[in-house]
Amino acid sequence: MGHLSTHVLDTAHGCPAAGMAVTLQRVDADGRSRVVKSITLNDDGRNDGGPLLDAAEMAAGRWRLTFAVAAYFRARGVELPEPPFVDVVQLDFGIADAAGHYHVPLLVSPYSYSTYRGS
């Protein structure tokens, strides 16, 4: 049974990115996107409700996760320049197998980020 999940780690403070706003969007063939879900990460840097998409919601196609990075760091009291170097991280990715497990972690600081397909 497929599902989609995410996990965000704040590498500047060495902790999960609790309180970060995340939006999941479906991207249509014409490039237009629609919001599927908006969440706030829990104390572990994950979605409180489990997967972002469960087996019934999974669909092959193009997807986008947006992470409100600058707002998160400002809320933690980090002074950032205006505009911030990393503001909103937008990750476009594809789901080729709706029965697969797709985990999209984000490692982030005010000046860098990285991601990969996790397990």
Keywords:
single chain, mainly beta, Immunoglobulin-like, 1 helix, 6% helix, globular
Would you kindly provide a written description of the structure presented here, covering whatever features stand out?
The protein is 6% helix and 45% strand. The protein is mostly beta strands. A 4-stranded mixed beta sheet has the order 2-1-7-8, with no helix packed on it. Strands 4-3-5-6 form a 4-stranded antiparallel beta sheet. The chain is globular, with a radius of gyration of 14 Å. The two termini are 14 Å apart.
**CATH class descriptor:** Mainly Beta
- The string of secondary-structure elements, in order, is EEEEEHEEE
What is the radius of gyration? 14 Å
Derived structural class:
mainly beta
What low-confidence regions span 5 or more consecutive residues with pLDDT below 50? none
Q: Largest sheet at a glance?
A: 4 strands, mixed
Average predicted confidence as pLDDT: 97
What gap, in angstroms, lies between the N and C termini? Answer: 14 Å
Secondary structure layout:
Blueprint (H helix, E strand, L loop, with lengths): L2 E8 L4 E2 L4 E7 L5 E8 L20 E8 H7 L12 E8 L5 E9 L2 E4 L4
Parallel strand pairs: 1-7
Antiparallel strand pairs: 1-2, 3-4, 3-5, 5-6, 7-8
